[in-house]
Amino acid sequence: MVRGRIPAAVRGRLVPRSRLLLPAFNLHLQSPAICRSFGYPPVPTRKYGTTRNEDGASADVKEVQKSGQHDTAAESAAATAGQGTKSTQAPASKAATSSVTGSTVVSDVQNWEYDPNIKVESFKDLPHANFGVNQHIPFDAEFKEVLKAIPWQFRAPIRYAFAYGSGVFPQSKASGKTPTEEELRAIHPKAPLAVQRAQDGTPKMIDFIFGVSHTQHWHSLNMKQHRDHYSSLASLGSGAVSYVQDRLGAGVYFNPYVVVNGILIKYGVVQLNTLEKDLTQWDTLYLAGRLHKPVKILRDDPKIRLANQMNLLSALRTALLLLPPNFTEEELYGTIAGISYLGDPRMALPTENPRKVKNIVGNNMANFRRLYLPLIETLPNVDFNDAGAGTKDWIWDESKNLKLAQDMDPVKRGNMVRRLPKAFRSRLYFQYQKKLAIPAEDFRKMMEESKDEDAVAFKRREGGGFERRIAQDDPVELRNYIRTVIKQTISWPATTQSLKGPLTSGFQRTWRYLREKMDKYRQGKQAGKEEVAENDSKSGSGSAGSEKQ
């Protein structure tokens, strides 16, 4: 098998083909003259940044400091992700060269999951300086600054924030279309040029998730500042809003179709503890599934970075259990991206593009590599089996679809089963208890023996006889059971999350959202028909050519 140049990815030293970040200057500066001198429009000012309350009194100094630290941490990680080689055309040997530093990093990545520091209070407590930088996708500098300015328009403290979806990462090829002023203003009343360029002539609402420490306190502050963001539910007070958020659905409260800095956005609010639990245990997979795909992290948090690294590794292991011995990158990333849609009720109704997963992967191959190559490198049972992994600069070549192979040894696959997230693994065990007809008392004792693990962290867990029996099951049966568990995990939280939409967003906004989703469904169906017709046409032409010969 070909090891390729993946160690460069592990060290976070890959450079994309997008515009490089300016290394020596901080574009947070509010001086229009400085911005114009580098060809950038002035970025939106950080109007609040959690520094002032509505009555003018100073906000909690600790909250201000933490917001700034978490913002700076995201900036630093993104810069690290974009550093290293001076050009994407750098010599291949440089990326493949082993060094003491590189080996240490790989070793750290392999060891952190077995003995992580669960008392993570700051970024210094993470396993090493570059830990988790693969989560920070290199990004267009101007568009990034526009997105980073959004959380600063909220007085309520935001500890973790990311932007995601088709408004941030295109899910279709560049069309070159230029929208009319009317089309643009129908979505973004006053969109910066960076947003217009990034969305390639098709203006879209931009989605955000905000991680907060205390939901009721956060909504109380936010309702004073942005009462127009909320539905009539807010008239009952922040207690009612936080109750609906935390007790119904997946623990997320969405405010869609609000304008911030001239940009139409939707933002979801989640308590950090809820997010961390979903990332490490997969109790709902609602937000963990979103983070399986490339997102733009705008404000980072050390505990969430550690938890998300566990989440990404779990997604990779689950995909490997679903895949055959030999597969392609597109199949791997498609399987990972599809996990969160398996039990989503929107996929069973005409309210989502049926080609969504294919569009996400097909137009973001390099971003998926940036996210998962460092983790593929650490697993002992999967590797690239393609000469293309030895070519220069292949990682940023969107047209490549390399082959991989995994070791189907039951011991290694049993270890993967044992290291799945706790809540998810328990559901899978229950399925196999029924299939293998294990007596309830024996099954209870077996589960008791596994309770020495920490509920949050991974420890060095080796699969035993039960896990190996699962791993050795008929591949079709195993895939069916895993898919069943995924659906069980996602279905109810996703359904209740959708049902509380009219309550949290209001009927008018909910109806607008449904109309847009149904439009995407029709567009996806039409695109699928056109692709089938095109393939049939090509097949017909090929058959005719063969007959003539």
Q: What's the arrangement of secondary structure elements?
A:
Elements: H1 6-10, H2 32-37, H3 61-81, H4 92-96, H5 100-112, H6 141-149, E1 160-164, H7 181-187, H8 193-198, E2 206-212, H9 215-225, H10 238-247, E3 252-260, E4 263-271, H11 272-281, H12 286-290, E5 296-299, H13 302-322, E6 326-328, H14 329-338, H15 345-348, H16 356-362, H17 365-378, E7 382-384, E8 403-406, H18 410-418, H19 422-436, H20 440-449, H21 465-471, H22 475-499, H23 501-505, H24 507-548
Parallel strand pairs: 2-4
Antiparallel strand pairs: 1-2, 1-5, 3-4, 6-8, 7-8
Helix pairs in contact: 5-17, 9-10, 11-13, 13-14, 14-16, 18-21, 19-22
Characterization of this structure:
- By secondary structure, this protein is of the alpha+beta class.
- The longest helix is centred in the last third of the chain and has 42 residues, at 507-548.
- It has a five-stranded mixed beta sheet with strand order 3-4-2-1-5. It has a three-stranded antiparallel beta sheet with strand order 6-8-7.
- Helix 5 packs across helix 17 and helix 18 packs across helix 21.
- Helices cover 50% and strands 8% of the residues.
- Strand 3 and strand 4 (263-271) form a beta hairpin.
